[in-house]
Amino acid sequence: MASSADPKSDQEYGKGAPPRPDAPAVVKYFAVDVALRVLLFAAAVTGVVVMVTSKQTKWVPGLGDRDAKFKHSPAFIYYVVALSIAGLYALISILASVSVLSKPNFQTKFLLHFAFLDVLMLGIVASATGSAGGVAYVGLKGNKHVGWIKVCSTYDKFCQHLAGSLAVSLFACVLLVFLTWLSIFSLHARIHKY
Amino acid sequence: MASSADPKSDQEYGKGAPPRPDAPAVVKYFAVDVALRVLLFAAAVTGVVVMVTSKQTKWVPGLGDRDAKFKHSPAFIYYVVALSIAGLYALISILASVSVLSKPNFQTKFLLHFAFLDVLMLGIVASATGSAGGVAYVGLKGNKHVGWIKVCSTYDKFCQHLAGSLAVSLFACVLLVFLTWLSIFSLHARIHKY
C-alpha cells in the first residue's frame, strides 16, 4: 500500500515524541505484549502436543484392540491445525514485537497490523476450541436422544488429554482477547500523546 | 501537517486536508459501523430463529414418534444463548453508534469501548459456531470409530435448519471481525488527525 511504501508517513508516527519522556511507558507496553505472546506460544504448543499424544488403545470385548486418537474426528484435526497456526503466528509476532522495540517509528504500524491479525487468530482459535469442545462433550456425556454412546468411560487417558488440551486453548483465547485489547488501548493512548 | 505530502494516504484514512472537512468522513465511518451492526443484528436473530424452529418429529420403527430438537444437545443450547447475546449486543450498539453521531467528543471513547466488546463478542460467537458446527458435523457424517450414527439421514429438515443457522452465524463472525477492524483502523486514523 502507498502508506507502507512511504517512509515519510512512517516518520510521522514518531513525530512529537523525539525527546521521548514516555519511552519507559512504550517499553513497558511492548514488554507486556511480548510476555503475552510468549504465553500464547507456550499455550498453543502445549495444546497441540497434549492433543497429538492423546492416543489410547483398549481391548474391547468382541472387537479386539481399538484405538482412540484425535485423527478419528475432523473437529480435533481442525483444532490441531488451528492451534499450530496460532503457535506459528505467536512465534513470528514475538520476533516482530521484539524487533520493533528498537524502531519506534514502526511501532504504531506494528500495533495496527498485529491488532488486525490478533482478531483473526482469536476467531480461528475460539472456533477450533468450541468445535473440539463440543465433540469432546458428546464423548464425555454421550447423547441418549440420538444414541451416541459415551467414549470417555472407556478411553479415560484419551479424554484427560482432550480436557487438558482444551483448557490450555481456552487460556490461549483469553490471551488473544487481552492482546487485542492491549493493542487497541495502546492505539487509543497514542491519540492523546501526539 | 506532513501528511499533505502524501495525498493517497490521506484519502485512505478518509480525511481531507486542513480545517476539519473531515466531518463527512466521520459520518461515513459511523454509517458503515451502523450498517455492519444492523447486519449483525439481523444475522444473530435469523440464526437463533432458524435454530429454535428446527424441531422435527419422525416415526422410528420400534420406537414410535421421536423428536429431534436443538434442546437435545448442550452445544446447540450454548449456540442459541451466545447468538441471543450477540443480537442483544448488536441492538444496544446500534443505538449507541447512532446516538454518538451527534456527540463528536464521545466518538473516540465509543470506538475504544465497542472495540473491546466486539472482540469479546467475536470470541463468544466464534466458539459457539464452532461448538454447534462440530456436533452438527457428527450428526451429518456420524463417527464409525466410536459408533456414533448419522442423524441427518433421518432428520433432514432438522439438519437443513442447522446448516442454515450455522452459515448465518459464520457470517456474523465475519461481521464481528470487520467491526473490530473498522474500530481499530478508525482509532489508528485518529492518531494522524490530532
TrEMBL record, chains A, B:
Transmembrane regions: 34-54, 75-98, 110-140, 161-184
Leader sequence residues: none
Subcellular localization(s) per the UniProt record: Cell membrane
Keywords, comma-separated and alphabetical: Cell membrane, Membrane, Transmembrane, Transmembrane helix
Domain (Casparian strip membrane protein): residue spans on this chain: 32-175
Pfam family, one: CASP_dom
InterPro entries documented for this protein: CASP/CASPL (IPR006459), CASP_dom (IPR006702), CASPL (IPR044173)
Highest taxon listed in the record's lineage: Eukaryota
Record's keyword annotation contains Membrane: yes
Keyword Cell membrane: yes
Bilayer topology annotation: Multi-pass membrane protein
Gene Ontology CC: plasma membrane
Main location: membrane
Family the UniProt entry places it in: Belongs to the Casparian strip membrane proteins (CASP) family.
Summary of subunit composition and partner proteins: Homodimer and heterodimers.
Protein name: CASP-like protein
Organism this protein belongs to: Juglans regia
